[in-house]
Prior knowledge:
There is one protein chain. The protein is an alpha+beta fold. It has one domain (4-202): 3-Layer(aba) Sandwich (Aminopeptidase). The protein has helices spanning 24-31, 49-55, 60-70, 98-101, 131-145, 173-179; strands at residues 15-18, 76-81, 84-90, 92-93, 115-117, 120-122, 150-153, 182-185, 193-197. Strands 4-5-7-9-8 form a five-stranded mixed β-sheet, with helices on one face. It has a four-stranded antiparallel β-sheet with strand order 1-2-3-6, with helices on both faces. β2 and β3 (84-90) form a beta hairpin. α5 (131-145) crosses α6.
Amino acid sequence: MANSNNDKDFLNQLTFEPLTKTNWSKFVQLFGKKGACGNCWCMYYRLNKTDFIEGKIDEGNKDAMQSLVLENKPTGILGFYDEQPIAWCAFAPREDFIKLEKSRVHKRIDNKPVWSIPCFFIDKNFRRQGVSVEILKGVMKYAKENHISIIEAYPTIPTKETLPDSFAWIGLYKSFERAGFKIVDQTSKNRPMVRYYKDIESS
Length: 203
């Protein structure tokens, strides 16, 4: 599989679907023993600091994420190549992410209903190949199908030419720019707030 993802048609073969009870095992497969990174299981933005740290022990964060899935709560989008999970993008109503709602840097700029993308996780064998842009397109398609008008994110604009993978989990601004997102607030110079409006003329 490592060689096949060099084909020109690789990105066109990716498929995307929301995380559900049906594909939970694929999510677990992608995140692996480390829960993506440090037993996070994509709960960092969804819990307060104390609960998140406690959740790193005895698979607490994993269980918390599974509970959301079992309750049919929106959590994010999985990306597949040849039926294997290779990418993840957290995607849910902004109010579901406690840390965002308490953020001083990324305060709400209006009262419109917004869905947020706070993080990504891409299999190490598929990084730096354009997958992040494609999964954003998958998110945008899902948003259109579910009448979600505003997508918001908080990517990084690197100050150095290369950025370690461990720091790229919030997403790179250039990926969002390529997908059609626009900066709507730059309280943080290197962590702008970007948005995609389903109906650009209404933005």
